[in-house]
Amino acid sequence: MTHTASKKHPEPVASAGSAVRQGTAPGPAAHPATHPRTPPAAGRVRRLPRRWRKAILTFHVTVAVGWVGIEIVQLLLGLIGLSTDDAGLVRATHVVMEILGIELIAVIAWTTLLTGLLLATATQCGLLKQYWIVTKLVVNIALMLNGHFFLQHWLRQQAEAGKATESLSLQLVISIGTALVMLVSATALSVYKPWGKTRRGRRPAPKSSCGPAHPPHGSSV
Ligand code: HEM
């Protein structure tokens, strides 16, 4: 009576089904009859369906790299403002820098942070499991604090003063240049995924799709 066995153990069938729906079932070997339950030691499975993960990743990368682009434009405008004597041109650069630096960057920074948090917490990556993710989180927050407490204030000052002082413009260019270096570093971290796992990430877990593409030399993984 094979059907009585399945009646006695209805749970495994349901959990395997949800794993398949989530795209986390490891294949035929995970058939409920042979692997009735994922052992707790195997850790939590990825919670975000694969197509959602890809869609959010696409959005995250678009917004994050867009942020890099805006900082490049800001830096160029700052340098133009510093190097020209044309008062009209200087004024125009200040107005555009203010719009980009106050209105747009805040939205972009928040969107990058929120999509990054979603990707990290709803997938195998984990928020505090890999050093490169923790570092990007710190970079993102540091850039937002710098933008909120310093950059926005200086940009307003620069836009209000018809002709900003050279030291204020220089201060802005240095600050924007530093932000750009930090953002490019965050992008490189996302691609190289260096430094391995944190202590929390070293706990037993299913094979992660979040680590470096090529494991370090000598590693059997
Ligand atoms: C500081 C600005 C940021 C930039 C420029 C940035 C850039 C990127 C890029 C280019 C990728 C694609 C990497 C790849 O698929 O090879 C990526 C993926 C990712 N990012 Fe960010 N990111 C930023 C902030 C964050 C933050 C704050 C978090 C989390 C707290 C985060 C978490 C992630 C995660 C989990 C992935 C997916 C990795 C994977 O699934 O392979 N990012 N990011």
TrEMBL record:
Segments of skewed composition (Low complexity): 23-43
Superkingdom of this protein's organism: Bacteria
UniProt keyword annotation of Transmembrane helix present: yes
Region (Disordered): 1-44, 197-221
Keyword Manganese set for record: no
Protein keywords: Membrane, Transmembrane, Transmembrane helix
Membrane-spanning intervals of the chain: 56-79, 99-119, 131-151, 171-192
Name of this protein: DUF2269 domain-containing protein
